[in-house]
Amino acid sequence: MIVLIFVALVLLAHWYLWHRLVRQTTRPGRSRKALTLGLGALFVVLVVTFVGTRMGLESWVAWPGYIWLAVMFYLVIGLIVLEVPRAVAAAVLRGSERRERAPEPEPVAVLAGTAAPVAEADEVVAVAPVPELEEAPVPELEKAPVPSASPMSRRLFLGRTTAAIAGVSALGTVGYGLSSALGDPVIERVMVTLPKLDARLSGLRFAVVSDIHLGPLTGVAHTERIVRMINGLEADVVAIVGDLVDGTVAQLGALARPLRSLESRYGAYFVTGNHEYFTAEGPGEWVEELKELGTRSLRNERVEISHRGAVLDLAGVNDVGGAASGDGPDFDKALGGRDTSRSTVLLAHQPIQVGQAAEHGVDLQLSGHTHGGQIAPFNLVVGLQQPVVSGLAKVGGTQVYVTRGAGFWGPPVRVGAPPEITMLEVHA
């Protein structure tokens, strides 16, 4: 059902683009046919991309389709925004055309020796000159033709101007988004006060990263850069909060190997995201692979972090996406029976899980999933589904920090939500 809705929306978007970018910018002929075929080919490329990436095809299949998806999105947004000024400009042009077509009063010739007719107020009457000789013929009064642009030319000019503005805006936005998504993540430094935190734990540092999305577009350099930046933070704990991969170990195992080099005082920990459940193999094989790479998965369980003689509970729950396969979150298992007098930090992929975390007395939840919207204005849509889109907030008495993620999903584009690795310090 979701696939059918997606295909319908993509078809609708392509029809709208054809109407605005092809039909209203060209006359019938070869140019229109060529542009129509080109737009149809881009639609096919997009379909092949979505099918191909799910079949594990190489990156050369994914790049053109995903980039066109981003350009298509911003073209549609730009053209919709331009609909109102375009309608106003079209109305002005129609008014100008009507005024040009309106007939003007013809000049009145007056014979020699007769009185000119008396004009009414504000009426202008053209009077022919009296010839010196009666035999001379009276010259005919002719109005010089005034050159004017045809209505079709004006409509084409309006259509082409609108298309050019939308096209330049879309290409510029996607170009900026590509540089943001493929560049270094931003290091966000956040300090969180936990009322129950033992004072000896003040200054404990978590390197939080989420939504790395290892896949056909990332390459091993993406993982190496993230590992290098995390190690530069010299964190006490590394928290990988879901959506690490978009594929199987057989497909992406080589891309994950740099995680073996992660450095921290008390270890690296991982919880599943919804994308870990997208393959037929499920997250189990990645849990084993990460164990070989030195990262421990917290699957509805917790560990104790001992620091300067004090203890903090670090818990992790599975993503809600695992519920369909019987591998969903179990807060009672992860948080039950603990010493409630000490602080608890919970790793949970989706911010929406903070409601249950609050019911179990969690002090701080670390989440990802939202990408901060990734491509504005999707941040407005994400806010309808998740209680927090990015940053630090408080829900039901529990603080939750949502990282924008270090990678991307789908188009390698980020607009208004640069990739992020967070250095989070807890204080009493």
TrEMBL record:
It comes from the Bacteria. Residues 204-372 form the Calcineurin-like phosphoesterase domain. CDD domains: MPP_YkuE_C (cd07385). The keyword Coiled coil does not apply. Pfam families: Metallophos. The chain crosses the membrane at residues 6-22, 34-53, 65-93, 157-178. Keywords: Hydrolase, Membrane, Metal-binding, Transmembrane, Transmembrane helix. The keyword Cell cycle does not apply. This is Metallophosphoesterase. It comes from Nonomuraea monospora. The lineage of its organism: Bacteria, Bacillati, Actinomycetota, Actinomycetes, Streptosporangiales.
